[in-house]
Design brief:
Helix content: 25-40%
Oligomer: single chain
Low-confidence stretches: 77-103, 105-129
CATH architecture of the largest domain: Sandwich
Number of strands: 17
CATH class of the largest domain: Mainly Beta
Strand content: 25-35%
Mean pLDDT: 75
Length: 347
């Protein structure tokens, strides 16, 4: 039976992999390259995190940076470590821990196969949870990611998030920058976000989180978020704040540095794109995208209408244009209440 991987170890490895990946894209000098190779040799977890990130970007050039390592040496390292590293799927399997290198096959693929064989050791834990996933954005890029559990992730510019889903918990690590989380409902698997030393515990929420040099900031669009000083299960962990919709907090040095009970959410989410562009998306999906920006809640009450697919572009902070568009669809009625807008079918 394998031990569960320490979230702090995973977080640190993912952070380092992100840093090395960005450095590789800019180019390494001889001294940096030596440090990079030494870091890779320290643990198969480092290799796994770096390869997974390079593969996510389809970046074979970054993966080729591993060619200077020694295959047998890495295989020996893998054999001496506890089997706690969850390698991503699609890694080639080999019949032994030290396969013979075949002409034409990139070294890094064969080396990772050796690591996988050494770590698997007949354990079934690789099949018990979805594969890890790392998501990155460049300095000028904002990226949307839809996950299988219904969670929508929107990354700010120059940001990185590690996604780790298990049988009992959904886990994100905000490695740099920030992101907005629109959490899919799954009562059996609570969602937590690690932001430096802080841990955010979600309660069916849309919230923005940004990592800072000395802590974190959190703005809640809907639902609730609890801010912990560490892992909630740890005896020394302290709940710093319970944030509700419309509230904002900053944490610095393990303490609550600022709390806005009536926050300007538009200001705190100003980094979000000005437009919502969608292709062949359902009406329900587009309405959910608008909800991320706050404003009057919009409910699509008719299932057939909610499933209708549309394409177009709207200004994100002008949901009235979207509501007006829905009102032009055949048989659709717009009902405006004191606190929300409901889209239904005409009787």
């Amino acid at each position: 039976m394998t031990d569960a991987i320490d979230p702090r170890l995973l977080r640190r490895a993912a952070e380092q992999a992100a840093e090395w990946y960005l450095d590789q894209r800019e180019g390494l000098d001889a001294a940096q390259r030596a440090r990079f190779l030494a870091w890779l040799r320290q643990s198969p977890l480092h290799v796994s995190e770096y390869i997974g990130m390079a593969r996510l970007h389809g970046d074979l050039g970054a993966a080729a940076a591993l060619d200077a390592l020694d295959t047998a040496g890495l295989a020996d390292l893998a054999a001496t470590e506890r089997a706690v590293v969850q390698l991503r799927p699609l890694l080639p399997r080999a019949p032994s821990a030290a396969p013979v290198r075949r002409a034409g096959t990139p070294w890094w693929q064969q080396a990772i196969a050796a690591v996988a064989v050494a770590l698997i050791g007949g354990a079934a834990f690789l099949h018990e949870a979805p594969a890890p996933m790392d998501v990155y954005t460049s300095a000028g890029e904002v990226r949307d990611v839809a996950l299988d559990d219904g969670t929508l992730l929107q990354l700010d510019r120059a940001s990185a998030v590690a996604v780790r889903y298990g049988q009992a918990q959904r886990r994100f690590e905000l490695l740099r920058g920030g992101a907005l989380f629109d959490v899919g409902r799954d009562p059996a698997r609570p969602l937590r976000v690690g932001v430096g030393e802080q841990v955010l515990e979600d309660v069916g929420t849309v919230f923005d989180a940004h990592r800072r040099a000395d802590g974190a900031s959190v703005a809640v669009v809907s639902g609730e978020v609890r801010i912990w000083t560490g892992e909630p299960a740890a005896t020394q962990a302290e709940a710093l704040a319970d944030l509700r919709a419309g509230q904002y907090a900053e944490v610095a040095g393990g303490r609550l540095a600022a709390l806005e009970r009536r926050a300007d959410l538009a200001q705190h989410t100003a980094w979000l794109p000005a437009d919502i562009h969608f292709e062949h998306s359902t009406v329900a999906e587009v309405a959910r995208r608008f909800a991320i920006y706050g404003g009057t809640p919009l409910h699509i009450d008719d299932a057939a209408l909610a499933a209708t697919r549309i394409s177009g572009r709207f200004h994100a902070r002008d949901p009235e244009a979207f509501v007006a568009y829905l009102g032009t669809l055949p048989g659709v009625r717009v009902q405006r209440g004191a606190d929300d807008i409901r889209i239904t079918r005409k009787l």
